[in-house]
Amino acid sequence: CIPCLLTLSSVLLYTLYKWVIPGAVQYHGGLALIWHDVIVEWILDTLTQSTRPQRLLAAVHKKATRGNPRSVVKAIDEFCNQNEWAMNVGNEKGSEILDSVVSETNPGCVLELGTYCGYSTVRIASLLPPHAQLITLEFNPDNAAVARQVIAWAGVAEKVRLVEGESGEWIPKMKEQFGVKTFDLVFLDHWKNRYLLDTKLMEECGLLKKGSVLLADNVVCPGAPDYLEYIRNSPQYKSQFFKSHLEYTKAEDGLEKSVFLG
Ligand SMILES: C[S@@+](CC[C@H](N)C(=O)[O-])C[C@H]1O[C@@H](n2cnc3c(N)ncnc32)[C@H](O)[C@@H]1O
């Protein structure tokens, strides 16, 4: 009968969408990104007439405790594991690599390139020593608007200055606009073709000092080959790779930690 056929095809489509395709693409970074970051995002945006950052923010408001940064991080990870993938650094790379680098660097002044919804911003800010400052750059105004609310909900707003604009435009203004001398830690997590350009820009602008740490996400997937080639071969850096997986998948990825030697 027609209703039975309709029910059967709906169940089949839902099974494909929820389990079969995500299961099939989770070991392949490129396919996982096309599925989660292009196809599913477009389907859900169209069906719900909302954006992924807005849905992520709603999950934070629903599940996280105001003023508790770790509960915000947990709510976002749950949303990404159970509802929809999002391009945060994620819990695996976050807890195993990013948090450790922040804690061992104990930075007074941090720059984050690429805020998105503020997930890594909250992770970093919650580990900073008192009086430390984190400047985070985001050029998409819709993402920045959501990030502001996530950061405020987590209760870390007094440590964070969210700057809306392009990295290439703002890096040269860091000293005069924000009184920055040098950065102790830079987390590179914006578009991958900017990693090398912005690193050279930070060098030219005198924003790195001996011992400054650059931590670059996604150096395998989507990958930043020109950056890796430069940072691993330059005598000005001591560089180390940390193997991991693309956020919320089992596809290969990793972070590159590079210490500026002056
Ligand atoms: C991978 S997401 C950042 C994820 C975030 N660091 C986290 O882990 O929660 C990359 C973000 O960088 C922003 N972006 C990309 N290129 C940029 C640039 N040149 N300047 C400022 N923001 C940029 C994008 O709009 C996007 O929101």
TrEMBL record:
Residues 1-17 form the signal peptide. It comes from the Eukaryota. It catalyses: a catechol + S-adenosyl-L-methionine = a guaiacol + S-adenosyl-L-homocysteine + H(+). Pfam families: Methyltransf_3 (PF01596). CDD domains: AdoMet_MTases. One of its GO terms (molecular function) is catechol O-methyltransferase activity. GO terms for biological process: catecholamine catabolic process; developmental process; dopamine metabolic process; methylation. The keyword Plastid does not apply. Its EC number is 2.1.1.6. This is catechol O-methyltransferase. It comes from Hippocampus comes.
